[in-house]
Design brief:
With 186 residues, the chain is of the alpha/beta class. It has one domain: 3-Layer(aba) Sandwich (Rossmann fold), CATH 3.40.50.300. 51% of the residues lie in helices and 15% in strands. The chain contains nine helices and seven strands. The strands form two sheets. The protein has a five-stranded parallel beta sheet, with helices on both faces. Strands 3-4 form a two-stranded antiparallel sheet. It is globular.
Length: 186
């Protein structure tokens, strides 16, 4: 029977770094952001908004718009989240004979997806580091970065909900060390 492990953390916390470490060590890892992006091309309900480039949804334009427009963000999530949930369940079925399956879900608690998993790993980061990472990674102003951070449930609330916490304020080597500590208890 597969142990279904969710990975979550707020934007720019280092979830992708942890995913890469897991993959490097031979674990099955899926990312719901990538799954959601695959579904974006199926969406046609956003005509009238400036989110298309070459007839396809431009994720950068869409992201800039939805983080400023709560109604549009809710509409997008209502279209995408049921599809992502269904895909998560398919993944669990496809790998039911594996020992572990890790799935990264940035909005784990916001979507209620936490109920699909046996264990949840939360990647945490200090807010000042998070802001710097997000500004650099996405070429955002501080105001834009703070807007995106504010769109998620506060990290402090998630800490009380997760089974395991991995702090990611330092280097990749430090994150790797914390990963190895975690594998001892999984």
């Amino acid at each position: 029977m597969v142990l279904k492990i969710g990975i979550t953390g707020n934007i720019a916390s280092g979830k992708s770094q942890l995913e890469n470490i897991l993959k490097e060590h031979g674990y099955l890892v899926y990312d719901t952001d990538k799954i959601a992006h695959d579904f974006l091309d199926e969406i046609t309900d956003f005509y009238g908004y400036d989110v298309f480039t070459g007839g396809k949804i431009d994720r950068k334009k869409l992201g800039a718009l939805v983080f400023k427009n709560k109604e549009l963000k809710n509409k997008l999530e209502a279209l995408i989240h049921p599809k992502v949930r269904a895909r998560i369940l398919e993944i669990f079925e496809e790998h039911k004979n594996e020992k572990y399956v890790f799935i990264s879900v940035p909005l784990m608690y916001e979507t209620g997806f936490d109920k699909l998993f046996d264990k949840i790993i939360l990647v945490t980061v200090d807010k000042d580091i998070q802001i710097r990472r997000l500004m650099k990674r996405n070429n955002l102003s501080e105001e834009e970065a703070l807007q995106r951070i504010a769109s998620q449930l506060p990290q402090e609330q998630k800490i009380n909900l997760a089974d395991y916490i991995i702090e990611n304020n330092s280097t990749k080597e430090d994150l790797l060390k914390r990963f190895f500590e975690l594998t001892k208890v999984l």
